[in-house]
Amino acid sequence: MTQTLATKPVSPLAEFWSYFSSNKGALAGLGFIVVIVLLAIFADFVAPHHPHEQFRDFILTPPAWTDGGTSQFLLGTDGVGRDILSRLIHGARLSLLIGLVIVTLSLAMGICLGLAAGFFGGAVDSAVMRVADVLLAMPPLLLAIAVVAILGPSIVNSGLALSLVYLPHYVRLTRASVLSEINKDYVVSSRVAGASSLRLMFITILPNCLAPLIVQATLGFSNAILDMAALGFLGLGAQPPLPEWGSMLATAREFIQSAWWVVTFPGLVILLTVLAFNLMGDGLRDALDPKLKQ
Amino acid sequence: MLQFFLRRLGMVIPTFIGVSLFAFALIHLIPGDVVTIMGGERGVSAETRAELEAMLGLDKPLWQQYFIYIGGILQGDLGTSYVTGKPVLSEFMARFPATLELTLCAGIFAVAVGLTLGILAAIRRGGWLDHTVMTISLAGYSMPIFWWGLLLILLFSVTLGWTPVSGRMDVMFWVEDVTGFMLIDTLLSPAKGAFASALQHLLLPAIVLGTIPMAVIARMTRSSMLEVLGEDYIRTARAKGLSKGRIVAKHALRNALIPVITVMGLQVGMLLSGAILTETIFAWPGIGKWLIEAINRRDYPVVQGGLLLIATLIIVINLLVDLMYGVVNPRVRHSK
Lengths: 294, 336
Fold this sequence. Notes:
By secondary structure, chain A is mainly α. Helices cover 68% and strands 0% of the residues of chain A. In chain A, helix 10 runs antiparallel to helix 12 (260-288). Chain B is mainly α. The chains are: A mainly alpha (294), B mainly alpha (336). At the A-B interface, helix 5, helix 6, helix 10, helix 11 and helix 12 of A face helix 1, helix 6, helix 7, helix 11 and helix 12 of B.
């Protein structure tokens, strides 16, 4: 037997990847997301037509593989003759971009507020947490509708509304992690060495609080896309003719009796994208959560 | 026990004040002022403006306006709709039973199906049934319910013609409004076939609204059941020679249900906000549809009052769930 014991410590990244890649669902999710992101980035080159171009002779053309379909429009056309596939691809760009903005905004604000609440404690803590509790008392969609009612329906306003809605989750998560780190030796020694509050908060403590935040941000992506589509569907989010997935469904409702493809594909894309983010988020949580690791 | 009740009640008051501040701010944050909106395209003269502002109390300082607003709420005055001229509270009460009926039926569907699927999956762990349930639950979790509703309409209403597309009842029936619940009212009325019609109208919306909570409950029941089934006392029960059905129903389920009940409570808020989407799809005449229409018509007192009432309802329900949970589980009662 010449078997040697592994003596070289595994790098954290490699360890993470070995956990993550053993989860087939998470890998599938990651794969789908990579494809969607690439489609979104290269939408101008990939999409066969312009998302707003109306082919007046091809109104409500069915998908290519059915009777009356043409290979010019793979997934058919909508009520004013726009290519559904092209609109879906450009919609991916819109949905992912808005999702990214929402998650970044609420994550950044949530980290700052959560760090402040956990680090300073006392009055700052109470004030921040009471506001967060009030926001959490209402269901996300209802709160977003309320904010949009104030600001007026548009894609930017509904994005702002949703960033506000998700904020309390990040605040609570950051605060909880900060509280569990703040009395550890490395923080105390850094403090004794004379580090400023800002340095302690952002450079010493924050990196050790990131794991749960990364997981929450991934799951936040799926919520953002889903709620954004819901607002679009209610007519409170993206306004026509923007190719947003939810508002595409809203305009498709009148064709439900006559053209199933107009209704089916946008929803399917929303479902698959949200599913992919959820699968990847679950995989990340299993890989990053030290409690589940042996 | 009393201390726990009081402490939990005390937490509700700041939340309610926060929500009311939010609702109050709504009317002051909208772009353009209320009087201009009321005036419409023709605009208002200076005297009318002053008169309207005095009537609406807009000439007073903000903090006074807030206290007048709160005073009004406590007396049941939530303002009047710009569009219909009726009090917001009575408009709300007229539509609330429809939403309640839909939400209750969706909740019953979610609990019945979710619990059954979760238990079956846990018992047959690793089998095809388990995999099917987990797939359904995962898909349900990620489902855009507005699309799910459209798909079901496409299948059951358009293709198969089994269920109607929208509304609560066929127009050919007229039923006296006794309880506001269509299912009960139609049973009380002499009209033949009215109950069947009401049930047909309710079926799809209830399933659509119940789908996400069903997925959540199934997932939670499965994992909690698996945990309990691994405990020593279950092994003891098995060693005593008890039948499998008895072990699951009598020994395991009772303990497995505790976390599931918490999850169910959390779903109430989801159901009420999901009702907004479901009612829009199925043209269900409840508070969700009413609220969205009010936003589109810029009927701000309705938006303000409606949001406040729904939020209050959710706060109260969450409070009740917490209190009940405290009764069931002593550990919650004594923790800080």
